[in-house]
Design a protein that fits this description.
With 216 residues, the chain is of the alpha+beta class. It contains five helices and ten strands. The protein starts with a helix and ends with a helix.
């Protein structure tokens, strides 16, 4: 029996030998993940799909960006941290005094109790608030007989402007005038030109262009 078993094992090894040899001598195949040459690029605000190589596509995008006029305008909304501790030179043009501008200053702070306080140059006090969602800035001055509020939409870090409203115990709320303010304790080069001066320059240039067209 032992001799018969050994013979069977020997015959099995002989029958399996060709398979082992073919597997040993066959070339090895290495699988690599497929990398698509298709890329997505944005040219002139139009999204297109291209099958050209990525290197060629990127060069084309760079050339397209260089040829086009790209303008990036970044404006960060104000937060309360940008307002706390700031001082402003405020000019008010009252409706009952259209030819005069009253100037004063106001300091915006946060008191120890967490309330936002406004301290004016005439020793008056009030409160201030900034709605970060709408960027609505409001600064008040309190009197024994009523309240006056300087408010407007904040569109600049260094300059503010808006409408003056108020009320007292013998008359309803009404518009009193307009106001503009400049942030103090900053370099003029840092603050730049006030937005209302820029608007005047643009309107003057538009008027000049229209006059030139009429003359032509």
């Amino acid at each position: 029996r032992t001799h018969t078993t050994m013979m069977r094992l020997f015959l099995l090894l002989l029958s399996a030998l060709p398979l082992v040899c073919s597997a040993w001598t066959s070339p090895r195949i290495t699988l690599k993940p497929h990398v698509s040459s298709s890329v997505i690029c944005r040219v002139a605000d139009t999204t297109v799909q291209s099958d050209v190589p990525a290197s060629v596509e990127s060069e084309g995008v760079e050339k397209e960006e260089d040829d086009g006029d790209w303008e990036y305008v970044e404006y960060e909304n104000l937060s309360e941290a940008d307002v706390v501790g700031s001082e402003w030179l405020v000019g008010t043009n009252w409706d009952n005094k259209p030819n005069k501008i009253d100037e004063t200053w106001v300091r915006l702070v946060t008191a120890e109790d967490g309330k936002n306080k406004a301290y004016w140059g005439d020793n008056s006090e009030g409160t201030w608030s900034l709605d970060t969602a709408s960027q609505y800035l409001s600064i008040s001055k309190n009197f024994l007989w009523g309240k006056t509020i300087w408010a407007g939409i904040s569109e600049d870090y260094y300059y503010q402007q808006g409408i003056v409203r108020g009320w007292n115990y013998w008359s309803p709320a009404a518009v009193y005038g307009q106001w503009q303010a400049r942030r103090l304790n900053v370099e003029p080069e840092e603050a730049g030109i006030a937005p209302w001066f820029q608007e005047n320059d643009e309107s003057e240039s538009d008027d000049e262009d229209s006059d030139e067209k009429e003359e032509a």
